[in-house]
Specification:
The protein is of the alpha/beta class. Helices cover about 30% and strands about 20% of the residues. The chain has one domain: Aminopeptidase, CATH 3.40.630. Strands 1-10-7-2-3-4-11 form a seven-stranded mixed β-sheet, sandwiched between helices. A two-stranded antiparallel ribbon has the order 5-6. A hairpin with a 3-residue loop joins strand 5 and strand 6.
Length: about 350
């Protein structure tokens, strides 16, 4: 299911998602320099700003690294848990995870699951949102919501789940928690976010959101991206809010008021990197090289997609789920394997 391209002028309606309401938004030309930002939400500011290059390199070097890939250190597993050979040469795939852990908590589920696909020629960026309630096969656990795989086995099991689902290798992983969302928002002095629908202060975070533009500080932004119960399509609508926040934070971070303000910029990068964890195979050189390869990407080359689902349902135990669209997922899988997300986006429009 193709999402509105949040980086490109006016929004379009998704004909297969009639509950979604489109609205015109002004073009944001400042987003055209957003390079490595989409690879890892927690290092959004690594966008090739010459005056701060040394500072950025030192901060990215400080990002924590863990064994987030299956197969232990090095993540050399190239087969699905079913024994199928994974496609490893169809571009590069980065899994970005945002957990719902509050400060001091150890157990959590993945509230943000985004697969960032960069084609071999680095001509575009495709950000694929997997709804947290998508009902899938979890290796060794049977059927369950996709975010439960993270609760059961952390990032490695979530990676295995996605690899089984898509048949392609996840090359790298980056994760943060919602506290990072809050701190990055405050670091840039708040953000202006577009909301497709309103929600009242009785919702998550106690923040009043109006349909249209909203000026939010970190605490309010946290409530904005967490809310789902008051939204028309629940988890799907929440995913769209999270993408709207991503657009807003990128717009603000790349604005002259932040880029040319050393105090704000340093605070923003510090907020991002201090909450970041990446896999132990993702080096600073990898990030820099990917950023350089993406230097020609423009706003119209960046696309948001929602992984295909066939509506809503409930399990035998009464859990609400997003029903997997097996045919649609097969088409997404084929596009990733063939490194032809451009064709997928065109056919889904």
């Amino acid at each position: 299911m193709l999402e509105d391209d949040l980086f490109d002028g006016d929004d379009a309606r998704d004909d297969r998602n009639p509950g979604r309401r489109g609205a015109a938004r002004p073009r944001r030309r400042g987003l055209r320099r957003a390079l490595v930002a989409l690879l890892c939400i927690v290092v959004l500011a690594v966008a090739g700003v010459g005056g701060y290059l040394g500072f950025l390199n030192s901060k990215v070097d400080d990002v924590k690294r863990e064994a987030l890939l299956p197969g232990g250190e090095g993540g050399d597993e190239e087969q699905s848990t079913r024994g199928d050979r994974l496609v490893t040469d169809g571009g590069t795939n980065y899994l970005v995870i945002g957990s719902d852990a509050r400060p001091g908590e150890t157990a959590s589920r993945a509230d943000v699951i985004q697969l960032v696909h960069i084609p071999k020629d680095s001509s575009a960026v495709y950000l694929i949102h997997f709804p947290r309630d998508l009902y899938v096969e979890i290796p060794g656990r049977g059927k369950g919501k996709i975010n439960a795989s993270y609760a059961y086995g952390g990032a490695p099991l979530l990676v295995q789940t996605l690899q089984d689902l898509l048949g392609v290798k996840v090359d790298h992983v980056a994760k943060t928690d919602f506290e990072g969302f809050k701190q990055m928002t405050d670091a840039v002095g708040g953000v202006r976010v577009w909301a497709d629908e309103a929600s009242s202060s009785s919702g998550n975070g106690g923040v009043e959101i109006q349909q249209g533009w909203n000026d939010l500080d970190g605490e309010q932004a946290l409530g904005f991206v967490r809310e789902r119960y008051q939204l028309s399509e629940g988890d799907i609508s929440r995913g769209q809010r999270q993408q709207a926040w991503m657009k807003a934070i990128m717009t603000k971070a790349l604005s002259p008021g932040v880029l040319l303000n050393p105090v704000k910029f340093a605070s923003f990068v510090e907020a991002g990197t201090s909450n970041a964890v990446v896999d132990d195979t993702l080096t600073t050189g990898d990030m820099r090289n990917q950023a350089l390869a993406l230097r020609g990407v423009r706003g119209e080359d960046i696309h948001f997609v929602t992984a295909p689902f066939a509506g809503y349902g409930t399990t035998e135990g009464g859990e609400s789920i997003d029903v997997l669209d097996e045919q649609g997922m097969a088409a997404l899988s084929d596009a990733l394997k063939a490194d032809d997300m451009a064709g997928y986006v065109q056919s889904s429009s």
